Amino acid sequence: MYAIYSKRLLSMVLIVDAVNHGAINNSAINNSAIGETMTAVTARQRLLDAAVESFADKGFTGTTTRDIAARAGMSPAAVYVHHASKEDLLFAVSLAGHKDAIAVIEQAYARSDDPVDRIHNMVFDFTKWHAEHSRVGRIVQYEFGALVPEHRRAIAAIRNAIEDCMRKALEEGIATKVLQIDDIPGTALALLSLGIDVVRWFEPGGSRNAGELAELYAGLAVRMTTNRQAG
Amino acid sequence: MYAIYSKRLLSMVLIVDAVNHGAINNSAINNSAIGETMTAVTARQRLLDAAVESFADKGFTGTTTRDIAARAGMSPAAVYVHHASKEDLLFAVSLAGHKDAIAVIEQAYARSDDPVDRIHNMVFDFTKWHAEHSRVGRIVQYEFGALVPEHRRAIAAIRNAIEDCMRKALEEGIATKVLQIDDIPGTALALLSLGIDVVRWFEPGGSRNAGELAELYAGLAVRMTTNRQAG
DNA sequence: GTCTATACCTTGATAGAC
DNA sequence: GTCTATCAAGGTATAGAC
Hints:
Chain A is mostly helical. Chain A is built from twelve helices and no strands.
């Protein structure tokens, strides 16, 4: 009856990664630690995965708890064993997504000391992440307003850190006169915007793959920020 | 009882403009033609305006017909005299918004013959429109999926025309060797993305006004597309 | 063209057996 | 920790008087 759990585990990598980062409570890790039989996927993970699919397809308000439960292969009541409310499920998904996104951009920042390479790497990785996780990305970017104030504050802090990271990269490039930018916060916003808007339209299997799109946008970002005389 | 119609007519310019363009049926025009007493706003317009506010605040699925009716100062039943369904109201708002957006970008295209000025004007006007109409813009950009297939097709045609216009501007600049672009459709997408993503976060009264933001993005667009040797 | 009243359905969340 | 059954509230849309 409730065994119609979808096999399309598009976001599983993200969820598992989030668990490793501590974004989601560590019941999955405990399961293996105590030697419990490892089913293919825990109920918690199925639930988060079902929520991602449902929220991405229909939006937060358009999603019913019955829909999530059916996708996770459980009864509507079982959802509330793991999460206090539908909004609580959204917060779990949004937090995992944001933690993944900031890890991606901070790692890209750290990978090179050269300001131009840095901009290239950051826009490349940020864009690629949004293309490859466009379903989670849609929730991350569009359902912020559906969070309760307390959860909104937690997410806003991560968003600010992402913008800070990009601003820092621009400032350092300007200091060494390799980058030429009039409006640092505005340009940081534009560079992030480019990657973020990908979630609005990108679907795997289109005419462009995630890596090609990321390379295109990274190249445009370098043109936007580099000194024209030095180019 | 139902006289709580909000005075915040943020989208009124758009709505009236859409009527002039024929996007919305011409009852408002008929009203004056037959010499009827001109109330400040017709019920139709109040309804469309209320729908814009409600959809922008809560999304299409999060909006109730009761909410729209209350904002328009009428009973829930009165809504159905003007529109067959909630989705039909969304379509009216979305169509008016899309027609306004394409008019803006096509006028910007036609304003200059110089390829660089053209890119500047198109990105400037498109960005400014999305900043100044961020509430309508949010509906235009994020509620496409809530339309029924027939309405989706009508809107998709306008979206394609917007992309065509931007691609044409890039192609003409490349032909005269003033612009230097590797991937024309991809770059067109990026330029439009920059303006579109504004609706996600822009609110009037922030640290940047619509014109300043548009100027910043237009400048970045020119850097993205112009020949580096010629610069 | 507007109202009051309401039909009929789905919603998020809970109770209590197992 | 999962189920079946259900609650109270609120959803879209309609009926029929004025």
